[in-house]
Recover the amino acids of this structure.
């Protein structure tokens, strides 16, 4: 069981270019500043990620493959809801506008978590999101906190905060629809 507590990450870049200064992800399908994926039994508490970026500096062709991108992590892989995610501040800008996307519903982007595996019983608490998402036209699974599988009603929603200045745009500058 992994535990990450009391961590500050400042000025981190995660990108796909072999010649860039950031962490190189190549053809990874889950991307995040802290982790690509969070697995069962993981505890993440009191985390600050600020002044950071996830971007594609070179074109990448999706070809229908699934991608999960989040400022903290791309995906939570946990069928048993055996994880803790609380007291998290994420200030990450995400730019996937250089991607060639053939199946837009296979791209999931959230400012904190891209996607949760299956339906959740346990939700993150006390999360604050600041950051922008720049994508391509037609993306349907993006969100100010989570990209998809968001509950329709739960009291934990009251502990999720989104910066009013966040923007969600395509590369032409048009607004993207958020969940």
């Amino acid at each position: 069981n992994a535990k990450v507590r009391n961590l500050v990450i400042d000025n981190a870049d995660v990108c796909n270019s072999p010649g860039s200064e950031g962490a190189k992800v190549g053809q990874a399908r889950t991307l995040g500043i802290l982790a690509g994926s969070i697995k069962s039994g993981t505890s993440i508490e009191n985390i600050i990620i600020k002044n950071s970026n996830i971007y594609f500096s070179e074109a990448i062709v999706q070809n229908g493959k699934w991608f999960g991108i989040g400022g903290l992590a791309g995906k939570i892989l946990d069928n048993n809801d055996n994880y803790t995610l609380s007291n998290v501040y994420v200030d990450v800008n995400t730019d996937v506008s250089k991607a060639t996307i053939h199946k837009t519903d296979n791209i999931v982007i959230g400012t904190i978590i891209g996607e949760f595996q299956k339906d959740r019983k346990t939700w993150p608490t006390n999360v604050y999101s600041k950051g922008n998402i720049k994508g391509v036209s037609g993306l349907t699974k993006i969100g100010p906190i989570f990209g998809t599988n968001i509950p329709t009603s739960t009291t934990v929603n009251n502990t999720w905060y989104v910066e009013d200045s966040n923007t969600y745009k395509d590369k032409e500058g048009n607004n993207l629809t958020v969940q």
